[in-house]
Design brief:
The protein is an alpha+beta fold and 85 residues long. It has a single domain, classed as 2-Layer Sandwich (Metal Transport, Frataxin, Chain A). It has three helices and three strands. Strands 1-2-3 form a three-stranded antiparallel β-sheet.
Length: 85
Amino acid sequence: MSKREKIISRFLSEPTDYTYEELVQLLQLFEYFEDNTGKTSGSSVRFVHKESFAPIRFHKPHPKKIIKRYILKYIRETLESEGLL
């Protein structure tokens, strides 16, 4: 199993300990990049695809780096609707 397949497989298993860093890696596999939304954005982050698919927006987890399950579901639905998963 390749590194790409392992990253995708872990995401699809909907783990309860999925970190922000893992999510960034996953989105980079699908050619999304983190777009800086400015100083006043707080913990809000936006990931934009180079082909201008709909951006993925959510709040960075804090103080722990664990992503909430509803965010994982939202990202999965978005990637599936764009035909990337």
